[in-house]
Amino acid sequence: MYTYRITTDNEVFTLPNSDLQTLQSAVGGYVELIGNPVGTMYANEEGLLMGLAPNAIATAMAGRLIVGDIAITCDTAFFDGMVNERESQLADKAVAQ
User: Among candidates 43, 53, 64, which has minimal Cα distance to 10?
Assistant: First the structure.
C-alpha cells in the first residue's frame, strides 16, 4: 500500500505509513474518510469550519470541494511521479522521532 500527503499547494509527499496518528498529522486534525476511484482519501473533518484553503487535486479526484491538506492510500504507486523526495525524507525522519 502507498500513502501520500497532497497539500493545498499541489505538492505530493510520501508518508511512512497509514496509521491513524500519521493520517491525523498529515491533515492537521480529525480525519474524514472520502472514497474515490484512486484510493481512500482522508481530509480534515473540520476543514470547512476552520477556513482551510481548497485542495485542487483532492477536489478534482473527489468531485466535490475538499479543503486542506489530505492523505490518500492507494494500492498502486499512483502519485510517485509527483513526489517531492527531499521533503518526504524529512517527513519520514520527523515521524520517526
Answer: 53
The three-state secondary structure class of 73 is: strand
Is the distance from CB of 84 to CB of 12 less than 8 angstroms? yes
End-to-end, the C-alpha distance of the chain in Å comes to: 23
> Which residues, 6 or more positions from 22, have their beta carbon under 8 angstroms from its beta carbon?
3, 15, 16, 71, 95
Tens digits of residue pLDDT in 2-44: 898 999 998 888 888 889 999 999 999 999 999 877 789 999 9
pTM confidence score: 0.79
> Considering only CA atoms, which of 60, 92, 79 is closest in space to residue 2?
79
Q: How far is CA 59 from CA 9, 16, 43, 63, in A?
A: 13, 24, 11, 6
CA dihedral in degrees (84, 35, 60, 58; nearest 10)?
-40
Handedness of CA 24, 29, 34, 36 (dihedral sign): negative
